[in-house]
Amino acid sequence: MSAKNTLETLENVRENISSSLTEGVKNRKSDFRTFTFCTSGKFPAGRTVVLRGYNAEHGIITLHSNYYADKIEDLNINPKVCCVFYSKGMKIQIRCFGRAVVNYDNKRSSHAWAKMSDMSKECYFQVPNPGTIMERYNDFSKETIDKKSEAFSVIDVDIEKIDWLYLKREGHRRANIFVKESAKDTWVSP
User: Fold this and answer.
1) What angle do CA 107, 112, 116 make, to 5 degrees?
2) How far apart are CA 63 and CA 23, in angstroms?
3) Residue 102 CB partners (closer than 8 Å, separation 6+)
4) How many angstroms separate the CA atoms of 96 and 81, rounded?
């Protein structure tokens, strides 16, 4: 969707969000393919992750994680998260606020594992676990085996609110979109 003349209604904003995030899942070159996943466990933390799924109807963002990564511990402390997407080309920022659910060693994670490429699976066989202190930068290995990694998990973010911002020389536009309560959608001052 071109942003020039079509982002003048809240319905257009919803369509823009849906098409942008859907494109991020499908197109490796999309600006919306990667995003900053922010948690607030013991300390606020953000890290760049890959968008693995987006369900517009239910307002769910999906990403994969090593189950032993710090972000999982953060989510156990506080499941509230913020997902920040930005497209330099479109000049659109999408901040999604919601609650994360970690799927580990269940049907959801097994189904996602079965659909992954072998190259993507390699990341989840790393020894030692992410964040482990090492003497040298390459003191780790990947011992790939022909079964599901015990370190693989799927994180689903149930989005409650989206703060959408369009940077435009003639005047920025900003809206708050309430995924499950469209009657609450509103324009806000940028």
Assistant:
1) 150
2) 15
3) 65, 67, 72, 75, 76, 153, 154, 155
4) 8
Question: Collapsing DSSP states into helix, strand and coil, what is residue 149?
Answer: coil
User: 14: Cβ–Cβ under 8 A, 6 or more apart, which residues?
Assistant: 177, 182, 185
Torsion of the alpha carbons at 126, 150, 70 and 64, rounded to the nearest 10: 90
What residue has token string 């900003």? 174
CA atoms within 13 A on the CB side of 14: 18
Comparing CA positions, the residue from 114, 72, 89, 103 lying closest to residue 27 is 89
Which residue is it, tokens 């369009």? 166
How many other CB atoms are found less than 10 A from the CB of residue 115? 8
* Summary mean pLDDT of the chain: 94
N-terminal to C-terminal alpha carbon distance within the chain: 21
Q: What is the pLDDT of residue 12?
A: 96
Q: What angle do CA 111, 40, 161 make, to 5 degrees?
A: 70
pLDDT tens for 29-43 read 999 999 999 999 889
Asked whether 142 and 126 are in contact (CB, 8 A), the reply is yes
Q: Is the peptide bond before 128 cis (omega within 30 degrees of 0)?
A: yes
Cα gap 34→161, rounded to integer Å: 19
Q: Can you say whether residue 59 is alpha, beta or left, with left for phi > 0 and alpha for psi between -120 and 50 degrees?
A: left
Walk me through the domains of the chain, giving residue ranges and CATH numbers. Answer: 10-187 (2.30.110.10)
